[in-house]
Amino acid sequence: MNEIYMGVEHITDLNGYDHMLYLLALVAWASLADAWRVVLLATAFTLGHSITLLLAGMGWVHADGAWIEFLIPVTITATALWNLRRGAGAKGQRGNNVTYLATVGFGLIHGLGFSSFFRMMREEGEGIVMPLLRFNLGVEVGQLLILAVCLALASLARAAGVTAREQQVFVCAVTGTVAFLMAVKRLPF
């Protein structure tokens, strides 16, 4: 159970705000009415980072930390730009296959960022599968808590007259700009 708590703590830690930025950019168009699509996107992200956590935890994948720290804000910027494209807020665009595949792919990159933390918290000689499942369950719970707050705030904004497109443009502009500046700061060369 310790791994579940650590997963929740890891994703909700304000020092790791890049993960929160990614989630915000991912669901920039959403409100509580879109909760099911948001859960599917969050799960796609978890699937991606679970794969690389498993591979890195088993010692099969090694990545340069400087490149991963650079690529994480690049994924946030790309997600914000993807969601800014005209019509991204339309119901038919919110959960298309490209979005889910990109989310899994970006989860692979974020998982490499999680991997060093996961390796440090895992006890020596302990198997990897069950601790990894518990950690990822914690990450998923933490993501869903963050997203529930974001969707509730978005629904309040909608009730106050903010349109889905206005919300989308604002959230993508903020997350994309912050992430772009992070990427520039983290250039690995």
Radius of gyration: 16 Å
Beta-strand portion reads under 5%
- Which ranges are low-confidence, i.e. pLDDT below 50, for 5 or more consecutive residues? none
Oligomer state equals single chain
What's the total helix number? 7
Distance between the termini: 40 Å
Relative helix content: over 70%
Average pLDDT for all residues: 87
Summarize the biggest pleated sheet.
none
Q: Please state the overall shape, judged from the principal axes of the Cα atoms.
A: globular
Query: Could you say how many structural domains there are in total?
Result: 1
Could you list some keywords that capture this structure?
single chain, 189 residues, mainly alpha, 7 helices, globular
Give a concise summary.
By secondary structure, the protein is mainly α. It has 7 helices and no strands. 75% of the residues lie in helices and 0% in strands.
Overview of the structural elements:
The protein has 189 residues and is an all-alpha fold. It has one domain (2-185). It has seven helices and no strands. It has helices spanning 2-12, 17-26, 35-57, 65-84, 97-121, 129-159, 164-185. The N and C termini lie far apart (40 Å).
How would you summarize the topology of this molecule?
Layout: H1 2-12, H2 17-26, H3 35-57, H4 65-84, H5 97-121, H6 129-159, H7 164-185
